[in-house]
Amino acid sequence: MAAKWADLSEGMSIPELKKNCSTQQLVLWAAGSGDFYQIHYDKDFAVGTGLSNIIVHGALKNAFLGQLVHDWVGNNGKIQKYGCSYRGMDFPNEDITCKGIVTRKYEEGGKKLVDLEVWTENPQGKKTTPGYATVVLNS
Amino acid sequence: MADAVPLITDEMRATIGKESDPTTSEVDRTAIRMFARSVGHTDPIYYDEAAAKAAGYRDVVAPPGYLGTPVFNPNAPSRRGGGGMFGGPEPGRPLKRILNGGTEIEYLEDICAGDVLTSTSHVANYEETKGSIGDMLITTSKTVYKNQLGKVVAIMTGTGIRY
């Protein structure tokens, strides 16, 4: 199932990854990442800062994009670089759809490299976390 | 507003490129599994030593975004700062709010359970700009992670927004 160099072309989409965070997942992430800022699990605190609800951690969405790319590459390669910007808030119990397209396929220094545009989308179709990735493939 | 005091002060400019004290972060199996579980990873290389080894790794693999767990020190004066996204001198005009603008990680070597990472951070750049949320100070910081062999394993670039 892993991505194969020969099968790739620029412009192709990679399989989507659907996420929908329960409040429990946000607490798991707080523990897993060490980010204990209360706006991510304490609604009273979040509302007190002017938010309408608790919000999903930006870094968790970054990690979702990492999973999106990793699951696509499988064990046929590695992520060399990836990043994203936090442009919009996402909320618990709402779909976060992670998507990506191949933007460039090239060889450099004997390495098979693929650039991707990746992002998360909220239920309204807004890209809340636009990003990018570069992966190196074995074959 | 043309003659407003600049947000970026000389004191701030002087901190650009200055390396922070090193931070030690441990990469261990239990923490990797917790991180992987909290994301929802299903690849066994993040949970199982044998699966990781079968895939060519030394041990359970650090998932994307996991760069070890900083060794907690209850007596540290501040758990943030020292050239990080939120530390450093105050801007020329008061700014009340902070946003995490973005994250980039470049991987240079595998990071696996058992590794001990040492990282130092520095402010790479300050930028003053005007956005839909008003005046913004954008701080770009870089953190370089080395493993126990002294090899650079990852470089993280963080963007902090104060407004």
Q: Describe it for me?
A:
The complex is a heterodimer of chains A (about 140) and B (about 160). Chain A has three helices and five strands, in the order βαααββββ. Chain A has a domain at about 5-20 and about 60-135: Thiol Ester Dehydrase, Chain A, CATH 3.10.129.10. Chain A has about 140 residues and is an alpha+beta fold. Chain A starts with 12 loop residues before the first strand and ends with a strand. Chain A is about 25% helix and about 40% strand. With about 160 residues, chain B is an alpha+beta fold. Chain B has a single domain (about 10-160), classed as Thiol Ester Dehydrase, Chain A (Roll). Helix content of chain B is about 15%, strand content about 35%. Chain B has three helices and six strands. A six-stranded antiparallel β-sheet of chain B has the order 2-1-4-5-6-3. Chain B is elongated. Residues about 80-85 of chain B have low confidence and may be disordered. The interface between A and B is medium-sized, with 32 and 32 residues.
By DSSP (H or I, 4+ residues per run), the number of helices of chain B equals 3
Number of discrete helical segments of chain A: 3
Helicity range of chain B: 10-25%
Number of separate domains of chain B? 1
CATH topological fold name of chain B: Thiol Ester Dehydrase, Chain A
Mean pLDDT of chain B: 91
Give a quick account of the main beta sheet of chain A: strands, pairing sense, barrel closure: 5 strands, antiparallel
Shape of chain B: elongated
Reported by name, the CATH topology of the domain at 5-19 and 58-137 in chain A is: Thiol Ester Dehydrase, Chain A
